[in-house]
């Protein structure tokens, strides 16, 4: 009886889960039944699609009206709760910035070289005999390029045996399929991202010399918190977390896009030159660490390092969102709680330089330098030339 009750509950919850995060059905979200959507007889041939313009216009206008109403409700009802709720981080709430303040930051910090940005790029070149992984990191200011680093890892495929060339080829293909299915096999995509994230963190913590450091992405990427299958990656990353995030403190991370629906919703309701400090990263760290598969042996030592860092970082790392222009979307940012407002203003002063995009231009500059100094064909062409030389 207990099993059938569970099955019945799961069956009841399945349609809601398939609809949306809010539990709405397909018909609630779109205004039509899914059966009608998938009925080809209801679809219009190409020559009649132009007739849908009036409907499209009506849908856009209605969506804009709903967006304005939602934005008003969020500003009136939700914004005051950000600062008043229990456990809110330091300086939580919505804040306005004067344009003159951004100009001052541009003059005295950005354009004088007191802010350094770090970005990386990773390229994979796969051939039959081996796979080449290239990771590159660039450190830049508006005064010029202050450092670029690159490294290549050569993953050699295990030799396969067979009576004929076809047998050996099929064995190699089967081997690579097995490697794709096993996350721990060789250099996985997650590990490759982890290697780049650790390199970016190392440059931010130990190579950068400016008072303010700007990074791309999340300050605590899951690849480093989980080790991407390697406890050594955790052991090497935790000291860097401490040096940059807890000791240096003057940093700001801005991802290129975010899946955090809470931050995105608050950001969509911000007016230009507003920022909000919303939450700390305690629940994020707790969720990743408690759900991670850390295993035994050396992983237990790495886990203890993570738990110690988590305790020391509690309440000290925060997430927020800012908007600099009516023409651009909002941007998520991460910072130390003691300097979160300063971090937001530094990022906004840089982002306002590209009004249409609203994303820090110095990060784009670092990324451009990285791709220019270490282009993808930097490994493709030499590898192809060597293989051709030896008849491959």
Automatic annotation (TrEMBL):
<feature type="compositionally biased region" description="Acidic residues">
    <location>
        <begin position="1"/>
        <end position="10"/>
    </location>
</feature>
<feature type="region of interest" description="Disordered">
    <location>
        <begin position="1"/>
        <end position="30"/>
    </location>
</feature>
<protein>
    <submittedName>
        <fullName>Uncharacterized protein</fullName>
    </submittedName>
</protein>
<feature type="compositionally biased region" description="Low complexity">
    <location>
        <begin position="14"/>
        <end position="24"/>
    </location>
</feature>
């Amino acid at each position: 009886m207990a099993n059938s009750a569970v099955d019945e509950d799961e069956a009841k919850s399945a349609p809601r889960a398939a609809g949306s995060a809010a539990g709405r059905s397909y018909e609630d979200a779109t205004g039509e039944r899914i059966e009608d959507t998938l009925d080809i007889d209801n679809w219009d041939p190409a020559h009649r699609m132009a007739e849908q313009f009036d409907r499209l216009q009506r849908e856009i206008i209605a969506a804009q009206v709903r967006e304005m109403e939602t934005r008003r409700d969020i500003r009136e009802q939700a914004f005051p709760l950000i600062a008043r709720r229990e456990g809110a981080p330091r300086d939580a709430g919505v804040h306005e910035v004067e344009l003159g303040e951004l100009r001052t930051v541009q003059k005295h910090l950005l354009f004088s070289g007191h802010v350094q940005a770090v970005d990386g790029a990773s390229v994979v070149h796969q051939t039959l005999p081996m796979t080449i992984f290239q990771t590159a990191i660039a450190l830049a200011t508006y005064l010029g390029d202050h450092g670029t680093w690159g490294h290549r890892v050569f993953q050699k495929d295990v030799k396969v045996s067979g009576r004929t060339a076809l047998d050996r080829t099929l064995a190699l293909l089967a081997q690579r399929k097995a490697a794709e299915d096993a996350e721990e096999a060789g250099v996985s995509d997650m590990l490759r991202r982890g290697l780049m994230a650790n390199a970016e963190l190392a440059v931010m913590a130990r190579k950068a010399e400016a008072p303010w450091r700007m990074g791309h992405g999340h300050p605590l990427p899951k690849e480093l918190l989980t080790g991407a299958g390697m406890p050594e990656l955790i052991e090497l990353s935790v000291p860097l977390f401490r040096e940059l995030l807890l000791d240096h403190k003057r940093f700001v991370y801005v991802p290129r896009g975010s899946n955090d629906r809470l931050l995105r919703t608050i950001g969509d309701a911000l007016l230009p030159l507003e920022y909000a400090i919303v939450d700390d990263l305690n629940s994020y760290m707790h969720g990743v660490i408690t759900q991670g598969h850390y295993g035994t042996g050396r992983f237990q030592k790495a886990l203890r390092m993570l738990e110690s860092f988590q305790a020391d970082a509690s309440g000290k790392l925060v997430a927020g969102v800012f908007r600099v222009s009516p023409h651009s979307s909002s941007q998520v940012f991460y910072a130390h709680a003691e300097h979160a407002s300063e971090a937001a203003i530094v990022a906004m002063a840089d982002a306002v330089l590209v009004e249409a995009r609203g994303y820090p231009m110095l990060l784009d500059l670092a990324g451009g330098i990285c791709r220019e100094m270490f282009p993808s064909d930097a490994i493709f062409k030499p590898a192809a030339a060597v293989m051709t030389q030896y008849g491959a």
